[in-house]
């Protein structure tokens, strides 16, 4: 449990979220913190405020409550996970800060700082050695809070790639089934055991990665894992699916290949377009990434004349997230084009999905092969930052395993935190 923290000056209580009594209050708080591109455009999520952190066995949500009237004016989520690194043989326990919110009327009162300090204390009590968080590079308020007031260090620079899966995004149009095959490139879906073998072999090349890749692949939002290779080269090891034969998968890999997985957020994270005062949105919580999607999409329906008033709020839509992308070989660039087409087609076939995204570390070699030419004119890039803080013990940068090697740039982006 989290100890209650009572600030007598501002009369604010920091405590754990109570699912039985706080649901509507958190819904109201998140609505007050609503983020949109302009009036009439809103972002919302499914009705479970804990839906992202529930994917972790150890998690918490803290709220800031005014004692004078009981109003909830802030919230933050945290979770604990194990990660491996390329720099040492020992796995690390880290805490992740997600979804920090403070009511606009109660900002600049230190509430956000107290929420961060409280969730850090909870993480340390639960064995976390480090605290991690992500924010957009140009979010000055957030970077100042974490770097200047909370002593976080810049750990990694990343790029988020955002692209509509339908260029016209006609929300009233049903998308027909499509053929995702190619004459030269093979897309083969793996069973989870096969995917785990390949990922465990290539994750060791990443500077930081989750150790529970099997649990990620088994989540219901993970649509599956595919490998992409040239038909002329083949991949004989994929034909053997028995456990005793799985090691042959990596030994028989073709000269050039790509592995990737797809995470479907459409049932959890939703965007909605609306006109002011037409609809009171059901708006509970938004992810770190969704806050930044709308300004980047350059969607044609941003014009008020492009849709009727009823169409504006009829169909919320979600997105697919391509994760775990790893490629090898001289022809990996050709295969990446196929991967991107495949992901886009999958998005077109998925109900309520209108956007495809991925995130790659700044030094990930596959960044050079994300299609951004004339055929992907709607592609938008968002600069992302990961921040890191050592929690337990005054260790200098030189002596610390992670802070000593920062900044890093080739990391595995966990879809559960996106």
Largest sheet: number of strands, sense, barrel closure: 14 strands, mixed
Oligomer: single chain
* Rg computed from alpha carbons, rounded to a whole number of angstroms: 22 Å
Number of beta strands: 16
Task: Assess the beta-strand content as a share of residues.
Answer: 25-35%
Shape: globular
Task: Tell me the helix content.
Answer: 10-25%
Structural class: alpha+beta
Mean pLDDT: 79
What count of helical segments does DSSP give? Answer: 9
Head-to-tail CA distance between termini: 26 Å
Residue ranges: pLDDT <50 for 5 or more in a row? 36-42, 168-180, 273-292, 295-313
Helix and strand run = EEHEEEEHEHEEHEHEHEEHHEHEE
Overview of this protein structure:
With 418 residues, the chain is an alpha+beta fold. It has helices at 23-32, 111-125, 140-149, 192-202, 213-218, 248-251, 294-297, 309-312, 332-349, and strands spanning 5-7, 12-16, 41-45, 59-66, 72-85, 88-102, 130-136, 153-164, 185-190, 208-210, 222-230, 257-264, 269-273, 318-328, 353-361, 380-390. It contains nine helices and 16 strands. The protein is globular, with a radius of gyration of 22 Å.
Task: Quickly list its features.
single chain; alpha+beta; two-stranded antiparallel ribbon; 31% strand
Task: Outline the fold blueprint.
Elements: E1 5-7, E2 12-16, H1 23-32, E3 41-45, E4 59-66, E5 72-85, E6 88-102, H2 111-125, E7 130-136, H3 140-149, E8 153-164, E9 185-190, H4 192-202, E10 208-210, H5 213-218, E11 222-230, H6 248-251, E12 257-264, E13 269-273, H7 294-297, H8 309-312, E14 318-328, H9 332-349, E15 353-361, E16 380-390
